[in-house]
């Protein structure tokens, strides 16, 4: 069994560095064009170059998304975009469009080509066709069951890699190809500009009764016709490995550095732990790893289509949010003092939860806060303020500091 890659999302430089720090083998991101998340900051040319250099120093990889479905007017920009990415050292393009696939071969021949989940690959003949055209990897449709993935793996060459989404938000449309946003808002989801109308709350309005809204009763929280649960396969790493999946992909390029830290850390430890115990038939995931994923903002979790047709997959729209990230540790000065950058308010006396880069979380008590002028302050109320924290345990450099909402 080959150890699968942890593939993490990055919508900006901070998330990118966080993914590397917390154990990602590869990071996928977008430039300023042709990516499916225009709401993210994404990467300028210079930022992309620096990201590739940093990743390669650590023997990790960078995959660049080129997975929009471009219109004719978009294509003249594509050759320079591809050439530049190749010059900067991008390891692979993630592509959905056949024309872009062929352009990548022509203008950036040294860069691997991976077929996006939007390619809708759901059988081995489709995977083989892409392989024969030159694809190195296929990102399978999220609608596939594990048994179908295992059969596909058995019918394709070992050289063709399989990537699957294992965590994060799920699109209600097949393989992410959605028309709802375009119809309702004029924003094209297939060109990175989705307005996410699938997350909205809906009512019926009768033609002759404008302004009178009739609920379609789903539950007491309202009616959400399209709003899917989040995917979570953290407890099923052994099944994914045995099915032959080469890369485990975490959704979330529009999400925060904190989300990237927690999810990357959890899947890194889940994979490593399984491979340390893969000969033990009684192996079960350590509870703390699963519990970590309850510390990020998320919808109710599910296993999607991996184990058959999903049941009730729509949710009531709201997020489950037990913890907030309140700071990042910039430097550990001693066993009790650290330099932090504040992100959300917290107080002297608060109990804080520390997620260090080595992954095992623990609690500390904030005993003292000092600002850059050397003045003691009772709280950290200003985002991005630099502070010196005194705690009852060491806070390692790079740690994410968080606080439980109900304490």
Provide a descriptive summary of the structure in words.
The chain has ten helices and 20 strands. The chain is an alpha/beta fold. The longest helix is centred in the middle third of the chain and has 20 residues. The chain starts with a strand and ends with a strand.
Rg on CA atoms, Å:
22 Å
CATH architectural type of the largest domain: Alpha-Beta Barrel
Can you tell me the CATH superfamily of the largest domain? Copper homeostasis (CutC) domain
Assigned CATH class of the largest domain: Alpha Beta
Average pLDDT confidence is 89
Distance between the termini: 44 Å
Question: What order do the strands of the largest sheet run in, or round the barrel if closed?
Answer: 1-2-3-4-5-6-7-11
Number of strands: 20
What key phrases describe this protein's structure?
6-stranded antiparallel β-barrel; alpha/beta; 8-stranded parallel beta barrel; TIM Barrel; 20 strands; 407 residues; 25% helix
